[in-house]
Amino acid sequence: MNQQFKIRFAHEDDAELILNFIKSLAVYEKMENDVVATIESIKDSLFHKKQAEVIIGEENGQPVGFALFYHNYSTFLGKANLFLEDLFVYESYRNKGYGKQMLSYLAKIAVERNCDRLDWWCLDWNTPSIEFYEKMGAKQLNQWTVFRIQGKNLAKLSNLNP
């Protein structure tokens, strides 16, 4: 059978599908206990507040992968760029070029929106993804360290201003 792969933007009706992709990605990254997203929070953040966008890859109409991305801003460039939060293809559909097509689609969006960069993070143990990204021409930015503040520490920090 001839496989047909298409990429489309997600709609609000896809909220449950997006949550399923997120949960599958979390299992892959050994972080399933960290998922607190709900169908309602996805609908609100993605489709009502438009805080991020999602594309969905489909093989013969069957959803097999997704990418969630949003605009960030480079003060040095003086313009917005794209940040890829997640790119995930179900394991049984990997090695068919779908991840490459989705990354290419995101690059096209970046170019069309006059962005100069497409950035993302990758877990340091995820060798298959690192090798995939490097094959696509991506470079690791080893001079940067990622920081995060959340939960009680975020609330504590928010109360420091007089």
UniProtKB/TrEMBL annotation:
It comes from the Bacteria. Keywords: Acyltransferase, Transferase. One of its GO terms (molecular function) is N-acetyltransferase activity. Residues 5-162 form the N-acetyltransferase domain. CDD domains: NAT_SF. SUPFAM superfamilies: Acyl-CoA N-acyltransferases (Nat). Signal peptide: none annotated. Belongs to the acetyltransferase family. This is GNAT family N-acetyltransferase. It comes from Peloplasma aerotolerans.
